[in-house]
Amino acid sequence: MIERTPNFKLIKKMNNKVFLRRMLWLLCLPLLLTACKDSMDEHYEVPDWVADNAWEVLSSGEHGNYSIFLQGLEIAGYKQMLEGKAILTIIAPDDDAFQTYLNKRGFTSISDMPVNEVSKLIGYHVLYYSYNKEKLVNFRPTGSTETEEEQNIKAGLYYKHRTRSSDAPTVETTPTGASVMVYHLERYLPIFSYRYFQTKGIDAKNNYEAFYPNSTWTGDDGFNVSNASVKEYGIIANNGYIHVVDRVVEPLETIYTELKNKEKYSTFLDLYDSFGVYVADDELSKSYAKAYGVDTLYQYQHGGLPNIACEWPTSSYLNFTALTALSYSIFAPSNTAINSFFDSFWKIGGYSSMQEVDALALNYFLYQFIYGGSMLFPEELGDDELKNLAGSSLNINPAALNEKTMCVNGALYGMDEIKEPSTFASVIGPLFQYKSARSFLYALLGSSLFSSYVSDLSKYIVLVPTAEQFEASGIRTVYSTQGLEAEGDDGWAEISNTAKQNIVYLHSASISSEQSSELPERGTRVIPTESTWNYWFVKDGNITCSSTFNQQLNPQFNGTVFTPFTKLKNGSNGSTYSFDAEQLFAAESGDLAYNIAICADHNYPYYCFAQLLREANLISNQIMMNLFGKGRFVAFIPTNDAIKRALASNKIPGAIDASFDAEGKLSGTFDAKELANYLNSYFITAAQNVIPSYPYIGSDFKNGRYWSERVVQTEGATAPQLIYTDNGTSLSIQLEGGNKCQVVSDYDYFPFAYEGGCFHLIDDVF
């Protein structure tokens, strides 16, 4: 294979027949190419070595016979370009190659082909700008000023080049019945160099021939041009380069067009088209609309999905980086595969047809089959690091890929099976599956937490509330906008993303890899939610949250604390359940310190303790003075019965001959200072201790000694500490040197948890 290296100058030759030959610098960056001025102030003689224009070179016979190709160029209207009206690169099939193509298509001569087909075909062999072999082996969209090290970055991956081939605008009908003119941009031609495969780290021959089974990889020292091998590189013309290929390069279509032409993927395309929208393009309209007798030109796009119907990823011809590298890999499941998946997934979830499936669920279903950014070859598909557009693992079985088609804007794979998509296999899979779970799905997508819950790096338990539970909590679901609205002073309005995040956090729990993601059918378990200081309490196949659990403290409460749960899925990163509560789980909004301070009903289980706090002057203006400004706290509060027994025996320092009557009225003699110091013994604060968790069986509030708010009364003495014990089946607390008090079992050792603190009831006083 031959490559000639030019040394171009702008010159003028005068002899017996005077003529002007304008020339341009062939090695200039495409972005910097400018037209030469028609009038020149200075004229130069053309040396004998100056090449002819591309038309003359191809016509000369020096490099083979190209009569059919030249005839096609003339029919398509490109002759003047080759004669010097443009700077270009020509991909030239000789007569033998072209005749083979015509025979295959059933044409005797290229003139027998429709003119529009000739233009489409020939234009695909005419590239914008001038590229020699070196530039096509490793095209650099940023220009040739890069260092050698910079040139090795993504070497060869800028593989697409703009041609003169395009389809005429089409008039199409929008979903509303309006007629619009869709403009079709010029096709890009893939040129696969050895550097392309080298950078990807995959075998060139096997991967290239997987897409072009009737072609042969010959580019080990250069490149192949789509389905063609190069016979001769870099023939010099004064307005560009010519690369001779062994066959006619067949124009590629968009992924969208290829799908339209394949009936077995019609369901997938219908789902994709459900997101279709016609978008007015101002730049295209400004440049071309008048020529077609319209005011506006449109592009057919697909909302949040890749615009596989568009020839270019951007309509700006100046964005070389995107235009030459960006493409998509679509793994289209067949109609049979989609129907089978519907029966095993969405039908179980309460949907009656694919048309009924929620648009957001469909959106993420389609994401599973799309790899964005670059084209994937078969050898790359075994890489576990590959992510689909949903951000989860590209869960594709390479052995199931029975069709591979190279396209203008990427690659189309076909398959007859669907492995469970990674997103659907995770703990949030039921959100996409169950019709009743759509509200929670909208909350999750609005919370910006999606990627966390599909990741296998974490393990979760997720509770899935229904639309009815949202409604009962004052949040309505607007399915047309995938919105969640609450009623305010100005009517119904979308709830904030922060509110959506809080909903997700209250219905999910992150657990360690050593912990079980199963909710127990027998026994008890406390599970911290993703909402800090809020907990789930599980008991014998039923569940509640800490805010609901706390309601039973109110003597007037007569509702149900616990509610049954049902397993929905063993996910790849945890387990998912539904639960039968009337409403959403909510965060505890009450203030424990305030609740204790205002306690006036003797039926509250901490009533007697609260009254002693009053006598000790530890409550002022509904504020607990011993806790004010000391952060989060843990309290161990003796039951009413325990305090009454202690008062009867004069066991509470600072309370003499004290007692409560039947109505809860406290009487007796009190030393406020002594009583206050004694009552401070029951409080552990964050001001003096690390509180990583509230105490419950198995919590991070570990066995050990903790400083209470009690102080010593004797100079030089050390205040006794509280000794906390979790023996796995019960909890106890004692004041150093005193009796051990047991946390009462009435509440299954679950803490009454609030944002600012928690408490347990104990069976005795210190």
Question: What does this 3D model show about the protein?
Answer:
The protein is of the alpha+beta class and 766 residues long. The chain contains 26 helices and 37 strands. The protein has 4 domains: 30-153 and 220-245, FAS1 domain (Roll); 255-423, FAS1 domain; 426-579, FAS1 domain (Roll); 596-762, FAS1 domain, CATH 2.30.180. A 7-stranded mixed β-sheet has the order 2-1-9-8-7-6-3.
Map the helices and strands:
Layout: H1 54-59, H2 67-76, H3 79-85, E1 88-93, H4 95-105, H5 115-123, E2 126-128, H6 133-137, H7 148-151, E3 160-162, E4 170-173, E5 179-182, E6 188-193, H8 194-200, H9 204-211, E7 223-225, E8 228-237, E9 240-245, H10 255-260, H11 266-273, E10 277-280, H12 282-288, E11 298-301, H13 320-325, E12 328-333, H14 335-344, H15 359-367, E13 370-372, E14 401-407, E15 410-415, H16 422-425, H17 429-433, H18 438-446, H19 450-454, E16 459-464, H20 467-472, E17 475-478, E18 483-488, E19 491-494, H21 497-506, E20 508-511, E21 524-528, E22 535-539, E23 542-545, H22 546-550, E24 563-571, E25 574-579, H23 592-597, H24 607-615, E26 619-620, E27 623-624, E28 633-638, H25 640-648, E29 655-660, E30 666-670, H26 672-679, E31 683-685, E32 704-706, E33 722-726, E34 731-735, E35 740-742, E36 752-753, E37 757-762
Parallel strand pairs: 1-9, 12-15, 16-25, 28-37
Antiparallel strand pairs: 1-2, 3-6, 4-5, 6-7, 7-8, 8-9, 10-11, 12-13, 14-15, 16-20, 17-18, 18-19, 21-22, 22-23, 23-24, 24-25, 26-27, 28-31, 29-30, 32-33, 33-34, 34-35, 36-37
